[in-house]
Fold:
Amino acid sequence: MRLSEQLKVISTMDRIRIIQGKRGNRDPEHDPNAKILFCDYMGSLQYADAETEFLTRDPEVVRMVAHMEIRHKKFRDRGLMPPYEPEVTRMYEFKDLTIFLYYDIYIQ
Structure:
């Protein structure tokens, strides 16, 4: 499946990460074999320009993963691993945890 075909079925309100490389055993931000090319709401992908030049190639999608990120709210105080985008408001917040969902789309 091509990237353009995959993006047609994702809602503009969903957060996506387009990643170049193979999915390993680590989160993509900590994997040396993966490079995150885009991370934002699907709707904003249509309006981005220089950072999304890879869209013109319409690469092959090799894998798509619904990636749930669960982190502690006080990750800094406790010395824990931070969320990928700590400045973005989480989708769901509980007493001491936050949850964020991304669609990770791996391309060649």
About this structure: The radius of gyration is 15 Å. The mean pLDDT is 84. Residues 3-68+101-107 form one domain. Strands lie at 15-21, 34-41, 61-72, 92-93, 97-107.
